[in-house]
């Protein structure tokens, strides 16, 4: 088993947030430490006034069936999966300091699910021996 899982969350579309939740929760349930580095277009979705992620236009036709399937399975939202993973295991969510500065986001603007604002150097040092996934 890996020493940990480093997830770099860059995308701001709903189709990417689902695997973020699934992979984070699964790793936490297996006892694998997880570190999430939120940057790019994903950053606004980790603020207190976060918008709802949207699906890309190329998947428009699939979205109704996907949402119905998730409802039928009573699948939790990506947010609830990450939140539960943080309660279950060693999971930390960091927002990129460069993106936060560019967008004028301060720690007090962030959702409680976020542990801190850090730079890429901090994240890379902390996760140097982890498997890396870029979403």
Automatic annotation (TrEMBL):
Gene3D superfamilies: DsrEFH-like (3.40.1260.10). It comes from the Archaea. It holds the Pfam family DrsE_2. InterPro entries: DsrE2-like, DsrEFH-like. PANTHER family: CONSERVED WITHIN P. AEROPHILUM (PTHR34655), PEROXIREDOXIN FAMILY PROTEIN (PTHR34655:SF2). This is Peroxiredoxin family protein. The lineage of its organism: Archaea, Thermoproteota, Thermoprotei, Thermofilales, Thermofilaceae.
């Amino acid at each position: 088993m890996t020493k940990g899982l480093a997830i770099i969350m860059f995308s701001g579309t709903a189709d990417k947030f689902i695997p973020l939740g699934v992979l984070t929760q699964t790793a936490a349930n297996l006892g694998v430490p997880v570190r999430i580095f939120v940057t790019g277009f994903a950053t606004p979705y980790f603020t207190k006034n976060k918008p709802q992620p949207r699906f890309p236009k190329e998947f428009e036709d699939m979205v109704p069936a996907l949402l119905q399937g998730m409802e039928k399975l009573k699948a939790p939202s990506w947010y609830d999966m990450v939140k539960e993973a943080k309660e279950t295991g060693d999971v930390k969510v960091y927002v990129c300091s460069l993106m936060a500065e560019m967008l004028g986001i301060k720690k007090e603007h962030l959702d409680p699910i976020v542990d801190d604002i850090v730079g890429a150097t901090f994240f890379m040092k902390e996760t140097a021996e982890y498997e890396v996934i870029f979403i």
